[in-house]
Amino acid sequence: MSQFHPLTVSQVRHETRDTIAVTFAVPPALRASYAYQQGQHLTLRAHIDGEDVRRSYSICSAVQDDTLRVAIKRTQGGLFSSWAVDHLQPGAVLDVMPPSGHFNVPLDAANRKHYLAFAAGSGITPILSIIKTTLAFEPHSRFTLFYGNRASSSVIFREELSDLKDVYLDRLRIAYVMSREQQDIDLFNGRITQDKCTEFLRYWTRVDDVDVAFICGPEDMMLGVSAALQAAGMPKEAIKVELFLATGATGANGPRKARAHAAMETGAHQNTEVTVIMDGSATSFTMAQDQESLLDAGLRAGIDMRYSCKGGVCSTCRCKLVEGQVDMDINYALEDYEVARGFVLSCQSFPITGKVVLDFDQAE
Question: Boundaries of each 2Fe-2S ferredoxin-type domain copy (predicted)?
Answer without folding.
Answer: 272-364
